[in-house]
Predict the structure.
Amino acid sequence: GNIGLQPADSFHKDLHPLHKADFILANPPFNVSDWGAERLRQDTRWRYGLPPTTNANFAWVQHITHHLAPSGIAAFILTNGSLSGNQESDIRQALIEADLVDCIVALPPNLFYNTQIASCIWILAKNKQDIRFRDRKGSTLFMYASQLGQMIDRVHRELSDSNIEAITNTYHA
């Protein structure tokens, strides 16, 4: 694939600003405070609001959203703080009003080896009436899965196949 004419990162120097993807899966870095916000203040990706200079979470969300095709779907991991932080409330509201938020899955803590904090899966859909899945126009599915999984040692939790199947079946139902 065409990864660009020179080395760059897709966030600070988007070498493919017009590229639109049908599916995006991402695990953006959590809560980055020094993300270069000042040099990106006028960026066209901030359609749903200006991300706070102290946290890149919703800059990543809008970067992902910007690159979705008209019927594209994105799934990404964020901290549970992304659901309630005051600085991002206008962006969250704009995403909901644009009917982009398809599903939020609240996950338990200790799932990742590099952090013990609880996280959530955000699923965005540009077209919630896409017949490949189901018609969820005007609604958002919230799943509370934070009690699932088993501790495999004192700091790490794993979701079982049946846990993952329950989440997946609920989403597709």
Summary: The chain has three helices and seven strands.
